[in-house]
Recover the amino acids of this structure.
């Protein structure tokens, strides 16, 4: 087949691809990130690029004729037909996300150093035993493994020991290079200790890798298992994003494309291995010194990571292949650490309540609480757990990817150039924004969208149904192609040369997303016949939640109107729970128990959720009695112009 070179500007990256390859695929192969919320279906129109030179063919290019005349095209619908040069505009570029690692923003305010173990003693998944062996002689001629196992048994008489092939292959030379003074790295499940690695007695420490495999981002932590410390953390966007922003798009890709499942698994592994390699380089740790890994992700991400078909997760009655995953080794999974390192994947509860929520429940010790706690993780899905030491009930609602910027005209993920805070002067309707990276804005992310809704409502520019009020909007409210739109930033102020707007359609999309989350919370409470005042504490988890302004979230009806002192930010609890398991094998047993005992509420059964959802499609809600602080003069959270 004929091959052609594609050059991507402004990076000046070249790649040779077969004729007929889409520009979106070519960009992915070249490592150039291009937005594609819909996974290449041609519906989201985020992958708009400009063909500067060369030959292409277009299929179903739905861009206006004026844009096509200037060379603009949808990358997913444009195929290479010759040598071609393509420019990726700033608004179409998929750059590095802001990944929540250490607590930031509201989560970090007034917070002392967090207890990684939640009061548990250190009992790491892998530990080192230092031994001095007698070298063999003509009369003491036992095999190397027999000699090592005997020494281990003398030190730990209640355990038996086994060794895998990779460690056995290195054993003979390793013992002799170390002059029979060795550090044996062991992992133990039940009563059998598995030898992972045999190294010289003075070799560096024993390390583990904790991973939060999110739909949008991948975060990891490198942990010193002997000292009980996190050495470093890192993160990046999930490389699966080119197959769609949400898990349903990715499930469809895995099911309908011949190599779809393999492509998604490969992308997940590439994301994890990239973060791990960066961490190891920064901390000066060799890959073979990382002897354990723990991965937390939602049910679909866990399936894709392991190459399990997620097909039936989206089909009624929504059944995953498994809720508990086998003990694996790094070599069979594909992680670039010690090949014999055990890899644990957090158990799921159901198709839409996964290991990330189990990990968060473990870390926050919700199952040990005497108080009634609501745990909420808001992302592409809204997942929540309500309970205490007596019981735990969970549910998940499809909030949609609006809070990740998808389906919003100028929406984007939390990355450089995203508007994250909005202030609107109620007297003049003028706007001030805060932008990630303190650069020119190119779009608006989830926390900025919530701010914008709350401030537009407070200024009277939006009514309770999410309609713009023309008499209130000033010069920034205008008629666009699809009705009224409000200008958040003029084109002279942006990094794209285009106005950044919030349309009436965007508002309706956001109302559906926030309504789904609040309806999920209300469904849990009503199922248990509890008023929302019965909640003693609300824990907000996840990267999006970490930057949330609680007053604004309550004002739009996303979260319950309860005293603000009941709210707690917990940060990336998925990653923190994985760190706990690395440092304490008892925590792993507790995680398995949480997965088994948590009750799952399926919101698609019956009419309760839909009734609550319809009632929540207003600002803040049809029932204002649920939002007492918004009745009359608003209490808490000023609309002051300074200090965005």
């Amino acid at each position: 087949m004929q091959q052609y070179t594609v050059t991507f500007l402004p990076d000046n990256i070249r790649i040779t691809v077969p004729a007929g390859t889409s520009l979106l695929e070519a960009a992915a192969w070249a490592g150039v990130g291009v937005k594609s919320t819909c996974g290449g279906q041609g519906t989201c129109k985020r992958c708009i690029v400009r063909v500067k030179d060369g030959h292409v063919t277009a299929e179903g290019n739905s861009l206006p004729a004026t844009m096509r005349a200037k060379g603009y095209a949808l990358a997913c619908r444009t195929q290479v037909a010759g040598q071609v040069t393509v420019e990726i505009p700033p608004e179409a570029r998929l750059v590095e996300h802001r990944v929540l690692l250490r607590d930031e923003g509201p989560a970090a305010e007034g917070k002392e150093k967090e207890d990684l173990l939640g009061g548990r003693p250190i009992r790491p998944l892998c530990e080192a035993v230092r031994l001095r062996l007698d070298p063999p002689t003509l009369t003491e001629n036992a095999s190397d493994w027999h000699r090592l196992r005997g020494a281990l048994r003398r030190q730990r008489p209640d355990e038996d020991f086994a060794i895998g092939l990779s460690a056995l292959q290195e054993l003979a030379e390793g013992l002799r290079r170390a002059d029979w003074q060795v550090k044996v790295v062991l992992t133990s499940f039940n009563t059998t200790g598995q030898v992972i690695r045999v190294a010289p007695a003075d070799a560096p420490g024993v390390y583990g890798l904790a991973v939060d495999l999110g739909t949008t981002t991948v975060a990891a932590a490198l942990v010193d298992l002997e000292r009980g410390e996190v050495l470093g953390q890192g993160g990046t966007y999930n490389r699966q994003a080119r197959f769609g922003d949400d898990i349903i798009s990715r499930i469809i890709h895995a099911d309908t494309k011949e190599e779809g499942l393999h492509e998604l698994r490969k992308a997940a592994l590439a994301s994890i291995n990239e973060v791990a390699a960066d961490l190891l380089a920064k901390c000066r740790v060799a890959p073979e010194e990382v002897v354990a890994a723990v991965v937390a992700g939602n049910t679909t991400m866990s399936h894709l990571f392991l190459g399990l078909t997620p097909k039936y997760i989206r089909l009624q009655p929504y059944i995953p292949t498994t809720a508990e995953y086998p003990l694996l080794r790094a070599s069979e999974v594909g992680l670039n650490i010690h090949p014999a390192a055990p890899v644990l994947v957090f158990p799921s509860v159901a198709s839409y309540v996964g290991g990330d929520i189990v990990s968060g429940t473990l870390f926050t010790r919700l199952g040990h609480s005497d108080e009634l706690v609501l745990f909420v993780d808001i992302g592409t899905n809204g997942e929540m757990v309500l309970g205490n030491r007596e019981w735990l009930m969970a549910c998940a609602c499809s909030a949609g990817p609006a809070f990740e910027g998808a389906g919003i005209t100028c929406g984007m993920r939390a990355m450089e150039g995203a508007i994250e805070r909005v202030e609107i002067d109620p007297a003049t309707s003028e706007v001030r924004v805060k932008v990630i990276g303190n650069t020119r804005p190119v779009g608006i992310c989830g926390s900025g969208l919530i701010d914008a809704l709350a401030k537009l409502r407070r200024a009277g520019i939006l009514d309770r149904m999410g309609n713009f009020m023309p008499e209130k909007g000033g010069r920034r409210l205008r008629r666009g192609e699809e009705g009224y739109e409000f200008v958040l930033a003029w084109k002279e102020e942006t990094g794209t040369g285009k106005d950044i707007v919030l349309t009436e359609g965007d508002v309706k999309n956001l109302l559906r997303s926030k309504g789904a989350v609040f309806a999920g919370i209300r469904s849990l409470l009503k199922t248990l016949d509890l008023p929302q005042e019965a909640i003693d504490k609300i824990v907000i988890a996840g990267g999006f939640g970490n930057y949330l302004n609680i007053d604004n979230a309550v004002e739009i009806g996303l979260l319950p109107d309860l005293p603000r002192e009941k709210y707690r930010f917990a940060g990336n609890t998925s990653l923190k729970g994985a760190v706990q398991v690395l440092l304490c094998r008892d925590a792993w047993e507790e995680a398995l128990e949480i997965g088994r005992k948590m009750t799952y509420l399926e919101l698609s059964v019956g009419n309760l959720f839909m009734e609550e959802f319809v009632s929540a499609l207003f600002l803040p809600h049809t029932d204002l009695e649920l939002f007492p602080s918004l009745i009359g003069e608003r209490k808490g959270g000023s609309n002051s112009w300074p200090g965005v």
About this structure: The radius of gyration is 27 Å. Residues 260-283 form the longest helix (24 residues). The longest strand covers residues 48-58.
